Amino acid sequence: MGSGRQGHARPAEDSANRRANPLTTPEGALAAYGPGEKPVLSLKEWRGLFRDQQVAFKLAREICRRWQSDNGAEAVPVQVLFPKVVFAAKRFLAEKLDRKGGSQPCDVLLVGEYMQAAISSLLEAIKKGTSTGNAEVAVIPQGAAGRGSTLFVDFHTTKLIYPVSKCHLNAMVADTQQWEQSAAFLLDSHPGVTKWVKNERLGFFIPYRNKSLPARYVPDLIVVTDSGINVIVEIKGQYTDNAEVKAKAAQRWVNAVNRLGEHGVWRYLLLTDPGMLGQALNGYTRAQWDEGQLELR
Question: Domain 160-296: which topology?
Fold first, then answer.
């Protein structure tokens, strides 16, 4: 009798072990799957829904939509742009996409971050390679004082202020303990700088996309030199991926506004050390910065 009970109990226990998963992990958290057999997940069927050409078409359609949104339909007509973008997308998937393991080109559609990265890379390459005169449209921001004026910049602040001499404002509001003050000193001391201003409450920004979302880049400083050149200055303590995206957007804006020819000559200057600002500006000025002479005074 006893051996019969044991023989009956073992199969039932083994069956339960095969079917049931624990409700919690060894650490006490809820398990990813409840009781029952663990599901086997596979992308095989999903991948079978897409051919490489369909993936290229989906990427091209989104790129053309963003191009039209950023530049207007008059820049490059979509019907002209789309076939070329499809061709570029096919080459990107075949030659430039770094796939690991058994991943497929269609997997870029599965993860939003991957798809946005692919679209951004292609869009950046298209903008860089565009050769038509009106391909990039310069968005000229307008602040409270209109275009290019500090006349109505007037506000109270509890932040640190730094007295300035070549700025139209009576002081610079500092958001740092040292580097903005150092930059202000160099700008006031540089013989080739005629005027400058910290880009705060001026309404000046450069439109760009941050992970496919429209964003505004507000550079640090605007400098006018004795050569009549307007220099957008950005000082970054660390050159990150986001800084690179902003720098590329700024360079495109500079190229576009220079082609427009109605707002003077512009340049973009990105530095990681404010102490190098004087030497870096020498490339845009007639009168040159000399650090040795400044130390002797």
Answer: Trna Endonuclease; Chain: A, domain 1 (3.40.1350)
Which class for 251: exposed (0-12), middle (13-18), buried (19 or more C-beta within 10 A)?
middle
Torsion of CA 226, 231, 235, 239, to 10 degrees: -140
| CA separation for the pair 145, 122 (Å, rounded) | 37
Residue 59: exposed, middle, or buried by beta-carbon count in 10 A (0-12, 13-18, 19+)?
Answer: buried
* 25 contacts 43 by C-beta, under 8 angstroms: no
In 3D, which of 141, 221, 223, 144 has the Cα closest to residue 175?
221
pLDDT digits over 145-191, tens only? 445 566 666 666 677 788 899 987 888 888 877 888 899 999 999 99
In this structure, are strands 229-235 and 265-271 parallel, antiparallel, or unpaired?
parallel
Low-confidence ranges of the chain (pLDDT < 70): 1-42, 46, 71-76, 111-112, 127-157, 212, 292-297
Write down the domain spans for the chain: 44-129, 160-296
pLDDT score for 10? 42
